[in-house]
Each structure stands twice: as structure tokens, then as C-alpha cells.
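Example 5.3 — CpXC motif protein
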Amino acid sequence: MDRGEPVEAERVPCPRCRKGGVVPVMYGYPHFTDELQEALRGRRLVLGGCVPREERWACTACGTKYLEEPVPGARPGDFVLGVPVEVDVLRDGRRTRGLVTVRRRDPWTVAFRLRGSDDGPRIAAQGDDLFAAFQQLSRAAARVGVRLLVNGSRRDAHRCPPGSPGAERDVAFLTSGDATAPILGPADPDLLGTPEEQDRAHAAWRAGSGT
Ligand SMILES: [Zn+2]
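Solution (predicted C-alpha cells):
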């Protein structure tokens, strides 16, 4: 046993605290065998308690539990299911911060609230794919004076063609060839459009490209 350092280096950093690594969770009453104690000492495993939960992964530092293993080398706006992503928003024209959480898939469920505000709007939306759910969220947010400054709000954004890399979680930009980016990645306010503008732009693009 080499005290676990090489393994440590390969762990995906915790998206929330960036201090710990994300490792498997073990549920139930553990038998404290030598192997288990070694794994706990080496921070290759965390104990999740007696009652099994859906989350299979957890951070060794802050203890945040994850439904799925976070992606290494995450880009701005990449998300882990159930973990809020902090984004810039315009609220009644003023820039502030909000939290978007992709709660689950099937159906894709997205939630929004303002950061550090208990009395602000809380919005949830669903869709058959993430882009559809996000468009629903955008419509509901616009009704309470909030615009999200993210790629999913760009007027040239659309769902990625199925089968392309990141298809489920990224958006494609009609104006820049085959470029794709995380739906919650930051976007300039000048680029924003409504869901209706997005759909019109996509229809025009399809007509123009003959597909
Ligand atoms: Zn953490």
C-alpha cells in the first residue's frame, strides 16, 4: 500500500468544493475488515449510512453526494445531476447571480432560483430533452423578469444533433458550424434570444441548408 497517492491524483475533483476527490459510497452496516479500513484511510471510499440512497458517489472533503460520477476536465457550465450550477442572470435588467440545477433526466427536469435569496422566484420546468426543458425554463423566467446569461439562451442555440458528442447536454450554435458548448456555459447578453427566436432561427437555418 503506497498510501493511495497515485489513486488520489486520478480522482475527479469535487465540482462543489474543489478540495476533495469523488469516490464511491458504500451503504449499509459495514464490516470493518482490514480492506475496508484501508480503503477508508486511503480515501478510496466513503460510508453513506445504513439506508441506501440513490447517490453512488461522494466527495472525500465536503461530503456532497452525487448521483453520477462528475466528469473530469469539466468546462464552465458542465453540470452534475442534482448539483446547482451558478450562472449570471439579468433580473429586471440588472446583472445578478442565480443557480440552475438539472435535477434529473427522463423527463429532463431543470430548476432555477436566485442565489442567496429565499423570497425570489423558484422555477422548475421539464422537457423531452434538455434543450426543450431549458426553453420552458426560459419562458417561465422571462415572465418574472429574469433572463439567464447562458449558452442555452443564445438566439443561435439549438439542440445538438442526436449522436454528436455531448448531444444530450450541450447546445449547438447555428452561426458557428459544428461548434457545441455546455447549455449552462456563460453567454454574452448581446447574444440572447427568446425560445421563439431560437426556433425561428433554426427553421430558417434548416430551410437554407436544405435539410
Ligand atoms: Zn467536495
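Remark. Helices lie at 5-10, 34-41, 130-143, 195-209.
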